[in-house]
Amino acid sequence: MGFVYSAAIGVFWFGRLANTWHHGLVARWWSEFNRDWRGSEIEYFKNVIERYGQPALDVGCGTGRILVPCVEAGIEVHGTDISNEMIRLCRARLISLGLDADLTVTPTHELNLGQRYRTIISCGVFGVGTTREEDLDGLRRIRKHLTPGGCLIFDFYLPGENLNEWSIWSKRARPTLPSRWTKPDVRKTSDNDELALQTRTIEFDPMEQYSVREIRMKQYEDQELVNCHQYRIRLNSYFKNELLLMLNVAGFDQVEMYGGLSDEKPAAYEDYHLMVLARA
């Protein structure tokens, strides 16, 4: 099934997997409510760029949560994202601050910018909305965009932070899918509309190590539902050693992994959020 639209309340739904769910109301949510999420990440990546050099590239920059503060600090950072709406919102935010940066709409596995960078960063993007083949192609493309000795820094999360998440890997304990919608996260926008966000899991394949998540965003004006957007996205799961192998295949000879927002604490068994530093 393809694209479906209901004019009554503006319901968007994609029967096929979208490359990203950051469109429409979801892009608006990301722009309004995720600017300062985990501010420690912003400082970490700013410091990383200052350490490894400019120019830098933010792959999957979205609405500029990391890119804009870097540009404000006088750091030369370019950005890419697969969502034209996210790039549009990022550019508008830069313009509102009297700033500018080179922004390009492109998926990572098709990256072809015609220049190289000393530092490439990517936060919360790897394995999101892609196939595993595209993830490997993306690493290869990034490698080609680094100067000799340049550094790629990105993060990823190991599967199953807690026992409840691990249960989906067990056939006997796996819940019936699709799962229930999460409780609505309702927030007021800058123009006094209300957006309500919900997510659920609709598919999980432990052999291929991916899940499919669905997001539903409702827009209310004066407590009346006026829009509802729904999107699906594929999320790939990776473990440490297979990612190391992928990076080696992509041409990265020197790879280090650290626990959390650090380049000092080597990744250990208790770590769930890992930071990868890979040298060209």
TrEMBL record:
Gene3D superfamilies: S-adenosyl-L-methionine-dependent methyltransferases (2.20.25.110), Vaccinia Virus protein VP39 (3.40.50.150). Transmembrane segments: none annotated. GO terms for biological process: methylation. Coiled coil: none annotated. InterPro entries: Methyltransf_12 (IPR013217), SAM-dependent_MTases_sf (IPR029063). The keyword Methyltransferase applies. One of its GO terms (molecular function) is methyltransferase activity. Keywords: Methyltransferase, S-adenosyl-L-methionine, Transferase. The keyword rRNA processing does not apply. CDD domains: AdoMet_MTases (cd02440). Residues 57-152 form the Methyltransferase type domain. Signal peptide: none annotated. This is Methyltransferase type 12 domain-containing protein. It comes from marine metagenome.
